[in-house]
Amino acid sequence: MASGRELQPAALQELLDQIVTRTVAGMGAHAGALFLLEPGGEVLVLDASVGMPTGFVSLLRRLQVAGVADSPLAEAILQRHPVWVDSGEEFARRYPQLALTFPFVGAVAAAPLVAGSRVWGVMLVLFSQKSPAPDARAQGRFTTAARCIAVLLRDAAEAGHSLQPGLSARLLPPAPAHPSAPAHSQAAADFIAALPEGACRLDVRGRITFVDHTAADLLGESIPHLLGARVWEAVPWLSPASYRLRYQAAVASQLPTSYTVNQPRTGRELLFQLYPDRTGVSLRISAATDATHSPDELAVGAGTAPGPAGLDAHYHMMRLSGGLAAAASVDEVVDLVAGHLLVTLHAQAFALLVAEAGRVRAVGHHGFSPELVDLVDHAPLASDLPLPGLTTGAPVWGLPQGVPSFFADRAELRAAYPESADIDDGLGAWAWLPLMASGQYFGVCVVGYRQPRSFTLQERATLTAISALISQSLDRARQYDAKHQLAEGLQAGLLPRTLPAMHGLDVAARYLPASHGMEVGGDFYDLIRLSDTEAAAVIGDVQGHGVSAAGLMGEVRTAVHAYAVAGATSGEVLAHTNHLFNDLDPGLLASCLYAHIDPVRHIAQLSTAGHCPPLLRRPDLHTDILAAPPGPLLGVDPAAEYPTADIPLPPGTLLVLYTDGLIETPGTDHDTALTGLAAVLSEATGPLDNIADTLVAHAQPSGDRSDDTALLLLKAC
Q1: What is the rounded CA–CA span in Å between residue 245 and residue 257?
Q2: How far is 348 from 366, CA to CA, in rounded Å?
Q3: Which of 132, 320, 377, 404 could bridge to 362 as Cys pair (CB 3.0-4.6 Å)?
Q4: Which residues contact 711 (CB under 8 A, 6 or more apart)?
Q5: Phi, psi of 555, deg, nearest 5
Q6: Does residue 29 surpass a pLDDT of 90?
């Protein structure tokens, strides 16, 4: 083999093409590709491919290495050694997101092109789902080819003529399956001509390389018009994208498929049967009859071939995949699975079962009877439940080593799990898919079909990929829910459980956590009984979120309570609390408003530490925005003083204290929001609880809150 230093770019390119083509053929693979890394090592460019349909080539033309981190390509580059994936199911488990985009892949081999200290690219070889995984000899051939390509690329670069990818990827012809034509070609032609079916041969680009008279007549076109053209371009009524995708699916999967089409000129229904190999597709065309037509006769998998139904399933698959990546709670995961999984898989039932505290918990289900769900939900894991995967002693609920289980009919299910004979769930086929996170099994996803069915290799790979995505999303969601519950519990523990009943004072309060995020907030409120006739109302907001803010909020609330009970005035309570706050040196600030209320004398003494101005609704329903004498935020100046102001509270007067979450509205300035809130308060009627709900609903009509919100209403009686 010539050195890369001696070869000009065109000759080097031709030599690399030969290596790729021969390697793919020699390994018994059906497709392969050569990717080159652009300078900088961030972008992979598809330089040449063999055996790949054009639709998939376009998806792989330019790839960000960081964008394909969860792929054999990036794995080979980052680890600098070949990556071997032995089957489509293993591919789906290891790369679930990629498997949903390319559900036809079987075994995969990817080798980095390493020469010297540099990675020059990646060589990729794909096997069909019906092909055996590469053996040791094939693996040796592959790594040798990758090493040779890397050395050629390095030598060419050192000689000053680096190989640059062209404007488009080159589609290489596969090595011929039959190197020499048979001597009895005329006999073969006579045999084909005598058949009632039409015969057509397409290459990997979809171009017609052979068509007989019967096929041409059924298509309604002449042989010269058809030869050399892509079938969906030469025959107008086969131009919809769904038919082109059928062909590409057959080439990519190397599995036969079939579909029917109405011939618009004759009104006849034609049956198209596609038989792929690594050099293209043999196409049989015949009139669809009861004897020859079965909707799923040769289908890659019911509902998975990319016809109209398949395109709809592909849409739901992408929606499910994208939604699971963003789901933040268990309920969101369940809703996504219910909304898209059954449509995608043409299934009728599903259940998500997880292990919690030694028991089974059904976190989501559809299509199973309530009685059956009740039987499983909260049952001990060690109990002898008459269900597959939940039997005593069965490893990981009957899914050994996390391998999915598929049951084509009830006989198969009964053979594997005899105890299931006592259960009638109205289904005829099942897929039991393990849910795994960080190498640990935590549950199963059950998918059920009403009718018996054989699970094809592609369907098994798709189901495995979906279960991997559900596992990742459900694990994240469960952690989120647990932390969110913990945060809510901490918040509830720091706020008063009840407010004391006071003579001459009607009170109501609300606390609403932020809609997004799971950290506890720093908003707080309290009503403190000072005597039989006096009370103190306090509301505040510690800067930030999280445990630190919540802990500081608890200390502030405790300090205010202690100074208030000790008999300090409003200004003194805030001054003492501020001094303590500064001693703590938390690195945070806090706002606070304190009101000493005397319902008997109908007066309130207010003092504020940089807090939102309270609202005062008079008995005539006119509402004022009170301008209490300002004091600095807690934590700014340890020697700060806080002035006070006396506010009259005749019977019927309503004092409203709140935190800024109530008036923070995107696109609305602070003063406008506050004026609008005051106007709503003037119109609000009914019990105090109803008024509190009205204020919250006005401020956050969608229920979406960017910050915590505390609200305290006090009405003089």
Answers
A1: 12
A2: 8
A3: 377
A4: 509, 510, 511, 525, 656, 657, 658, 659, 662, 692, 695, 696
A5: -70, -40
A6: no
